């Protein structure tokens, strides 16, 4: 038998609407309402300032290790903005901006990054899953969640985020295959920030794009300028509509760049050049969008100054609220055993009882003959009465 050609649909689009000079392609303009555009900008700015504040706090020893966001605000805000409150978001560990847009309180993220499990609490009614640290594993959760909703007849959509490095994980391929075979209403958002920690995109895969990996699963795909919030919004809106109406998944590759370090224990100067960073700084999504809004006369310098001042107040208030909660939790450390299991297993109950007995014994030794607590020093030399600063 002669060899024959198998016809495959492998068309791939790249979408860009607002370039790095804030020049708009008027034919592709989504003509979004001014109040939505301003809310998107304000959330991007808040996310950037919150990221910078947390980095400062971490360097002071007030927070633990966390993944930074700077440079990827458009890829997140543009993606989640078309979602409804009834839709689900399944994040990895860098989706600070998406979490803020969805309603996660700032003080909760501060608590979480300070090592308090209570900070991972999702507000009642908010359809977001907790952040996921194991690379790529959240995509399986998203596919399963979307499948369950489709079976139950819900018209909701699931959106999940991951990085370029996650596309090298088996979880990525398993989730993509499952979502396509079982017609799951899920939108896969790949934030291709060019590095999987220190491994560059060129060492991840020989594919010309990451979006084209969807071809193997007969899944719609698209590559967008991830620093163009308008392009990301349009791509996400199309994918969300497809998922809701047709129960078809989509893969969107957002070309973006991590302007800061991978996490607070990373040193990017060891594996990338300053000249490369300088090129991407000129493509900063926040500055680009600000220029566009000013050109549209939707934003002016005085308003930006006022917005910056209000954001500063919000960050200070969130920090104070987080410190108060930390102080309360420090006074009842047994709370660390809570919120782990719906039904506490016997092994954990035994650990809790042992912990409580040990705490009571230490408390009795710390009391003088008149029963008053003797305030001494903790192991780190800080006053036993002092809370987190």
Topology readout:
Layout: E1 14-15, H1 34-59, H2 73-80, E2 88-90, H3 96-102, H4 106-113, H5 137-151, E3 158-163, H6 170-181, E4 186-192, E5 195-196, E6 199-200, E7 221-225, H7 229-246, E8 250-255, H8 274-281, H9 285-295, H10 301-330, H11 346-365
Parallel strand pairs: 1-7, 2-3, 3-4, 4-8, 7-8
Antiparallel strand pairs: 5-6
Based on CA atoms alone, the radius of gyration comes out at 24 Å
Measured distance between first and last alpha carbons? 77 Å
Number of strands: 8
Instruction: Provide mean pLDDT, rounded.
Output: 91
Decide which structural class fits the backbone: alpha/beta
Q: Give the spatial strand order of the biggest sheet.
A: 1-7-8-4-3-2
General description of the model:
- It is built from eleven helices and eight strands.
- By secondary structure, the chain is an alpha/beta fold.
- Helix 1 crosses helix 3 (96-102), helix 1 (34-59) runs antiparallel to helix 9 (285-295) and helix 2 packs parallel to helix 7 (229-246).
- The strands form two sheets. A six-stranded parallel β-sheet has the order 1-7-8-4-3-2, sandwiched between helices. A two-stranded antiparallel sheet has the order 5-6.
- The longest helix is centred in the C-terminal third of the chain and has 30 residues, at 301-330.
Summarize the structure.
This protein is an alpha/beta fold and 389 residues long. The protein has helices at residues 34-59, 73-80, 96-102, 106-113, 137-151, 170-181, 229-246, 274-281, 285-295, 301-330, 346-365; strands spanning 14-15, 88-90, 158-163, 186-192, 195-196, 199-200, 221-225, 250-255. The relative contact order is 0.14.
């Amino acid at each position: 038998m002669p060899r024959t050609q198998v016809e495959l649909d492998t068309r791939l689009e790249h979408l860009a609407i607002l370039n790095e000079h804030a020049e708009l392609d008027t034919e592709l303009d989504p003509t979004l309402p001014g109040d939505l555009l301003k809310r998107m900008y304000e959330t991007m700015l808040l996310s950037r300032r919150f990221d910078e504040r947390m980095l400062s706090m971490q360097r002071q020893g007030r927070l633990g290790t966390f993944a930074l966001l700077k440079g990827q605000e458009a890829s997140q805000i543009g993606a989640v903005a078309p979602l409804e409150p009834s839709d689900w978001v399944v994040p990895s560990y860098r989706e600070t901006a998406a979490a803020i847009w969805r309603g996660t309180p700032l003080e909760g993220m501060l608590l979480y990054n300070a090592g308090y499990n209570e900070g991972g609490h999702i507000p009642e009614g908010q359809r977001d899953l907790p952040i996921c640290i194991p690379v790529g594993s959240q995509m399986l959760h998203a596919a399963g969640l979307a499948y369950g909703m489709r079976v139950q007849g819900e018209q909701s959509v699931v959106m999940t985020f991951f990085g370029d490095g996650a596309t090298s994980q088996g979880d990525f391929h398993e989730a993509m295959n499952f979502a396509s075979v079982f017609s799951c209403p899920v939108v896969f958002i790949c934030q291709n920030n060019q590095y999987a920690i220190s491994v560059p995109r060129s060492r991840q895969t020989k594919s010309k794009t990451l979006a084209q990996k969807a071809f193997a699963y007969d899944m719609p795909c698209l590559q967008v300028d991830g620093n163009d919030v308008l392009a990301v919004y349009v791509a996400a809106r199309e994918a969300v509509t497809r998922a809701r109406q047709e129960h078809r998944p989509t893969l969107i590759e957002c070309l973006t760049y991590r302007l800061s370090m991978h996490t607070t224990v990373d040193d990017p100067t060891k594996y990338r050049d300053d000249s490369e960073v300088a090129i991407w700084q000129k493509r900063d999504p926040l500055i680009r969008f600000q220029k566009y809004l000013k050109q549209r006369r939707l934003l002016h310098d005085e308003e930006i100054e006022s917005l910056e001042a209000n954001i500063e107040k919000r960050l200070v208030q969130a920090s104070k609220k987080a410190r108060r909660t930390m102080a309360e939790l420090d006074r009842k450390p047994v709370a660390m055993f809570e919120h782990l299991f719906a039904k506490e297993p016997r092994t954990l109950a035994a650990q809790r009882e042992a912990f409580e007995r040990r705490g009571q014994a230490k408390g009795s030794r710390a009391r003088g003959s008149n029963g008053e607590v003797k305030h001494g020093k903790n192991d780190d030399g800080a006053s036993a009465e002092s809370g987190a600063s």
